[in-house]
Write a structure and sequence with these properties.
This protein has 465 residues and is an alpha/beta fold. It is built from 15 helices and 16 strands. The N terminus and C terminus are likely disordered.
Length: 465
């Protein structure tokens, strides 16, 4: 890039300018390179993209040239990119000169920027990118969509392509493209991959440093979200849910309790077994084969670690109850007695999905607002799993010491067999493969971690929920 063009990017940070210089040089020199730019979350990749777009539209405003930028969704991602470019055009003194067309085109003179959705259902065939092709949040864009519909847009003009994003798993478009780019770098020495993790971004922003250090403390260094969004390291697809280190952190030294201690506060998580309708022999047989269980996990709240950072108490798992092959209705009286009379639980999160809804309704009617429903969906389960990982990483949940019981054995068997699967849009699933067993204790553990949300040290003085 010529020195006369560099001042247009003077507002960017050094690491942004480094990537921008290589991209713009490829465009102006007709090299047609494909770049991968990974920047830690909130580190300025969208600003980098907008400044490059502004520069190219300015340089080619007298010519009929087109750049294309796509995002996983039109709303909000594509719209946000459009708004940012409009702001930068105004900042550069082009207010009143640029025009918006058809809801997805920004024109400056004869040069155009097209903003498209990369959603699988979006119809984008027919567009041409003869100036630049950009893919935002490339880790969430379908490889097939990109390969068949977007990449060909620049084929006839050898258009430079840029994939922006953060890490996710090792099967994403961004990760696969990055590996190819590294191989090409080794052959010709031309840098195509630019990676700036949170530590690089933090060199230029003290507030960012403070924020991310807080996230690291809250989530843990190896939490999937911190690992991918800030450290820019991909997670392994189909791997174990908890690492060996996390399993060690989950194991506590306290003894199991069969009754509450005076002055202590308790919460619970209830995972309910599936039920077959009475008289449906086929379903009853299947249910028997699966041997799903209803599991209650009792957690004792430990307020000793609460400080300015740890707002919530830690959880010491002190008891498990497990029923296999028993109808929900037959458990009602036991559930109420355990929650109300034995442990006097302050908050109980209950699986209210499907057949769990009647159980939740019954408990809510009998015990009031301390009973909190949880409906399993792809989104809610993902959040549940992330919260459990954060609690484990921070030492916020500990399992009682080995006592030789069947419950202890089943708990750790499920923890050992638990797997995780990471999906687009930074969501995940955690589970035990049905062919290897069940996840009743695992889900009950996650629900008791959910139950601690909202507690503060002040509540330890007797405040009821």
């Amino acid at each position: 890039m010529k020195e006369s063009e560099q001042p247009r990017l003077h507002l960017l940070r050094p690491y942004q300018r480094e990537a921008a210089a290589a991209i713009v040089d490829s465009v102006l020199s007709g090299k047609g390179l494909t770049f991968c730019v990974e920047v830690a979350r909130q580190g300025g990749k969208n600003e980098l993209s907008a400044q490059i777009e502004l520069l190219l539209l300015t340089l080619f405003m007298a010519g009929s040239r087109t750049l294309v930028k796509c995002s996983p969704t039109f709303k909000p991602q594509t719209v946000i990119s459009m708004d940012r470019l409009k702001d930068r055009l105004n900042d550069a003194g082009f207010e009143g000169f640029w025009a918006s067309e058809k809801g997805y085109i920004i024109r400056l003179g004869y040069a155009r920027a097209l903003f498209l959705s990369a959603d699988k259902s979006a119809n984008v065939v027919g567009h041409t990118a003869d100036l630049l092709l950009e893919v935002d949040e490339a880790q969430d864009v379908s490889i097939e969509k990109y390969t068949k519909e977007f990449k060909p847009m620049g084929a006839t003009t050898n258009t430079t392509t840029v994939l922006y994003g953060t890490a996710w798993d090792d099967t994403t478009l961004l990760e696969e493209t990055k590996q190819t780019a590294y191989e090409l770098e080794e052959k010709d020495g031309i840098r195509r991959c630019f990676r700036y993790d949170w530590q690089e971004v933090a060199k230029y922003n003290q507030d960012y440093l403070t924020y991310v250090e807080g996230e690291r403390e809250r989530l843990g260094e190896n939490h999937p979200l911190f690992l991918t969004q800030y450290r820019l390291m991909p997670v392994r697809a189909g791997g174990g849910f908890l690492s060996a280190q996390q399993k060690e952190q989950l194991q506590g030294e306290h003894t199991r309790k069969h009754r509450p201690e005076k002055g202590k506060m308790y919460i619970a998580g209830i995972d309910l077994a599936g039920e077959a309708e009475e008289g449906d022999e086929e379903k009853l047989s299947a249910a028997k084969l699966r041997q799903d269980s209803t599991v209650i996990t009792i957690g004792e709240l430990d307020f000793s670690r609460c400080d300015n950072f740890h707002k919530q108490p830690a959880i010491r798992i002190v008891e498990h109850y497990c029923w296999t092959g028993k109808n929900h209705s037959a458990l009602y009286s036991q559930l109420i007695d355990l929650i109300k009379s034995v442990w006097k639980c302050r908050r109980v999160v209950v699986d209210s999905t499907g057949v769990g809804q009647p159980v939740y309704s019954f408990l809510r009617q009998a015990l009031g607002s301390k009973i909190v429903p949880f409906t399993f969906t792809a989104s809610s389960k993902s959040e549940l799993g992330y919260n459990l990982l954060a609690a484990v990483n921070s030492g916020g949940v500990k399992m009682y010491a080995g006592d030789g019981s069947e419950e202890y054995s089943r708990f750790w068997t499920e923890i050992e067999k638990a797997r995780s699967r990471y999906r687009a849009n930074q969501t995940m699933n955690f589970y035990v493969d049905p062919s290897q067993g069940h996840d009743d204790f695992l889900m009950s553990l996650a629900l008791v971690v959910k139950a601690v949300e909202g507690y503060t040290p002040r509540e330890a003085k007797g405040r009821s929920d």
